[in-house]
Design goal:
Structural class: alpha/beta
Number of helices: 14
CATH topology of the largest domain: Rossmann fold
Helix content: 55-70%
Domain SIS: 123-266
CATH class of the largest domain: Alpha Beta
Domain HTH rpiR-type: 3-79
Strand order of the largest sheet: 2-1-3-4-5
Keywords: DNA-binding, Transcription, Transcription regulation
Shape: globular
Number of strands: 5
Distance between the termini: 49 Å
CATH superfamily of the largest domain: Glucose-6-phosphate isomerase like protein, domain 1
Strand content: 5-15%
Order of helices and strands: HHHHHHHHHEHEHEHEEHH
Protein name: MurR/RpiR family transcriptional regulator
CATH architecture of the largest domain: 3-Layer(aba) Sandwich
Largest sheet: 5 strands, parallel
InterPro entries: Homeodomain-like_sf (IPR009057), HTH_RpiR (IPR000281), RpiR-like (IPR047640), RpiR-like_SIS (IPR035472), SIS_dom (IPR001347), SIS_dom_sf (IPR046348), WH-like_DNA-bd_sf (IPR036388)
Amino acid sequence: MTVSIRLQIKTLYKDLSLKEQAIADYILENPSKVSHSSISDLSNELGIADSTFFQFTKKLGYNGFKDFKMAMLMQENDFSAISIHENIQKSDNELTMAQKVFDSNMTTLTDTKNLLKEEDLKIAAAMINQSKRLFFFGVGGSEIVATDAYHKFLRSPITVFHSSDYHIQLMEASLLTPDDCGIFISHTGKSRETIELAQVAKNNGSKIIVITSHAASPLAKLGDVVFISISEETEFRSEALASRIAQLSIMDSLYVILMFINRDKAQQSIAKIRRSISKIKEP
């Protein structure tokens, strides 16, 4: 599936210059006008040189403005389908507020799903499956995602590790080997702690899977495989919180794929855990 211009802009937005962000904002806010205007008209409107707009289209992966404009025309439905999710007003009742939160989450999941690539999923699943040990790394809000993943993957035949303490995570990263795999989670991809963890692991030759919302981030550049989660920032919920549901879904996907690869062993692991947990449940 071809990634839409809207999603391309979202994944790169935080790493664009101020001038490039102004171009991106204009495209997102005026898709129809952009797809039916000349590069000179658009550049004059934005007060920039034609070459600046041309280079922006190249940054998105197009051969030039004509290629970009053709893609815009073909993706008009993608832009026209955009609605302002979770734009909660004071006049909204509680049900409307909740529905807007759900709408926003569904958009986050749909956008993230559209960025998934079969080859990336295959490579990541193989890396995990072939590893002796699997470690989960994340700090702050990302640590919550790492803990949830650890809780899930404990049911798999793979030996997994995770600590909520950053210093212990750093110690674990220092002990990784080429036979191990680490999954590193950071919404911005710019968390100094997580970058340091990934760099230590990379220096040891460990396999690295990154989950972030920003494709051009320093953390993403360290990954052997990178998964991008997409989300919108709103007044009372940060982009990082919104991306969490997408990151959890990426983890769920990798978990399910791994369990199907190891179907027999996976069923044995799950059975052991269920037997153990059933002993403490009320009859």
